[in-house]
C-alpha cells in the first residue's frame, strides 16, 4: 500500500511484487481509502439544493399510531 502511494504507478508496484498481472495488484487500489477520498475531493459538487420535505397526512397518521 505504501509503495503504491509513493509511486502512484500500479505497474511499478506489480513488477516489484512479482505479480503476473495487474489484476493481482488492483486489490491495493480497492483497499486504499485515501485514493477514494482524493477522487471524491476532485469531483465538482452536484449543486443539489436542500428541499423541504412535507410528509403526507396519511404517513403522519400511521407513524403516530405506531408510537401509541
TrEMBL record:
Q: Name one GO molecular function term.
A: DNA binding
**Key words of the record:** DNA recombination, Plasmid
The record's SUPFAM superfamilies line, in alphabetical order, gives: DNA breaking-rejoining enzymes (SSF56349)
| TM region(s), chain numbering | none
Provide the GO biological process annotations.
DNA integration; DNA recombination
Coiled-coil intervals in this record? none
What's the protein here called? Integrase
Amino acid at each position: 500500500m505504501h509503495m503504491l502511494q509513493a509511486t502512484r504507478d500500479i505497474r511499478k508496484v506489480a513488477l516489484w511484487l512479482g505479480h503476473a498481472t495487474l489484476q493481482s495488484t488492483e486489490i491495493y487500489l480497492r483497499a486504499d481509502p485515501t485514493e477514494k477520498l482524493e477522487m471524491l475531493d476532485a469531483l465538482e459538487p452536484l449543486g443539489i439544493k436542500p428541499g423541504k420535505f412535507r410528509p403526507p397526512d396519511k404517513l403522519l397518521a400511521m407513524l403516530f399510531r405506531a408510537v401509541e
